[in-house]
Amino acid sequence: MNESQVTVVGNVATPVDFRTSAAGVPTVRFRLASTVRRYDQKSGGWADAFTNFYTVWAWRALAANLASSVTVGEPLVVTGQLRIRQTERDGRQYVSAELTASAVGHDLSRGTSAFVRVAPARPGLTGAPSSNGGAGRGSSGAVAGAGVEASVPRQGAAP
User: Fold this and answer.
1) What's the pLDDT band for 127 if we cut at 50, 70, 90?
2) pLDDT tens for residues 142-158?
3) Angstrom distance (rounded) from CA 138 to CA 119
4) DSSP states of 118-150 as a string?
5) What do you get for the CA distance between the two ends of the chain, in Å?
6) How many other CB atoms are there within 10 angstroms of residue 115's CB atom?
7) Where is this region: Disordered (predicted)?
8) How far is the C-alpha of 65 from the C-alpha of 46, rounded, in Å?
9) Separation in Å, CA 143 to CA 24, 67, 109, 127, 152
10) Which among 20, 88, 109 is positioned nearest to 59, based on CA atoms?
């Protein structure tokens, strides 16, 4: 792979939009806001300068894991291929930045996280078919990666 990889640190700005393509490939899309902060000598503190917004795309297992792990406002570190797109609509020029993510994680400099490894479903291991015919589900009937958030206590949540 000869394409450049970039890393962007920011906050999730929109809900994660999970979809499955016609070919059955999971995909997600969300917006990531990355605000530049500068030290203001006059006030003696840090101040927000401007915010860049990126549309983040993810596919396959990363998409499924993002959909069950990320919510609006959470700080993330996203690594992937950056694409700058220029379009024209109604006589106006628009520029957008898109990231095709190869790796995403919570920004642990701003909080804690608990990792839960997701094991892929292996049909036939239990000997009993699932109630839905096994379409993307393990023998328990749960979608791989779904419900992980429920088993991992969120920071500040009551036990």
Assistant:
1) low
2) 344 444 333 344 444 44
3) 10
4) PPPP-TTSSSS--TTTTSSB-TTSPBTTTTHHH
5) 45
6) 9
7) 122-159
8) 34
9) 14, 12, 31, 18, 16
10) 20
